[in-house]
Amino acid sequence: MGLPHDFKSSLIPKYPDFFSVKVVNGKVHLVLENWDSSLAITAREERLSRVLEPPSENRNKVRITKDGNFLGPNAFKVSFPPGFRPNASYLEEFQKWQKMEFPSPYLNARRFDSADPKARKRVVAVLHELLSLTMEKRVTCSQLDAFHSEYLLPSRLILCLIKHQGIFYITNKGARGTVFLKEGYGGSGLIEKCPLLLFQERFVSLCGRREVSVCNDQLQSSNVIS
Questions:
Q1: In whole angstroms, what is the distance from residue 157 CA to residue 178 CA?
Q2: Which parts of the sequence belong to the PORR domain (predicted)?
Q3: What contacts 156, CB < 8 A, 6 or more positions away?
């Protein structure tokens, strides 16, 4: 997330109107004291606001492309794995999924029936937003487990990620695996890097050392996110 290692002592106390640290059920939690609903706009929604065109009379004639992408307010950007050739039936069902409305990831998950298809799509949106908020658009599976109960993620989370292989990419499936947001990568590199990452790369190059991930997590044998 780009937070300093000592954020609990150096950052949180400076903003008591926004944050506090409390013990809940024997565990230390970071608590948001004030909620501004105007900030509840996901990275997906921000991206779509830049590319969506105003509604037109031909809007209903728009068809999903063979790569699975669909220009709509409820759609996700996808990139199917190499060699995956969806047939017409698959694309038709996927288009229905892309068009389907779903609750905001910023709403309380306890309000929805986990078996509802819209709630299941919301889980994808939660994972998408979580990864979008990270500097490197990726988290380890162990890091993701820390959010499992809080976000009411499905018990078979790995199966959910695999099912949506056009949105997420997983290396070394298991406790030491890493989940990537595919749209954040072009090949093996990030498409957009935050200032902190750019500073790190510059610092490392000046030291004459090889690049080191701020997440302390290296890509194994699979270096291409496709």
A1: 13
A2: 1-210
A3: none
Beta-strand runs (E) in 47-203? 138-140, 168-171, 178-181, 185-186, 189-190
Please provide the distance, in angstroms rounded to a whole number, between the alpha carbons at the two ends of the chain. 24
At 207, the amino acid letter reads: C
- Smallest CA-to-CA distance from 98 within 187, 167, 186 is with 167
Query: Whole-model pTM?
Result: 0.84
Contact 125, 44 (CB under 8 A): yes
Q: What are the backbone dihedrals phi and psi of residue 178, each rounded to the nearest 5 degrees, phi first?
A: -135, 140
Residues 55, 60, 63, 69: is their CA dihedral positive or negative?
positive
What are residue 23's DSSP bridge partners? 28
| Cβ–Cβ < 8 Å for 24, 56 | no
CA atoms within 13 A on the CB side of 56: 8
Q: Which residues contact 136 (CB under 8 A, 6 or more apart)?
A: 184, 190, 197, 213, 214, 215
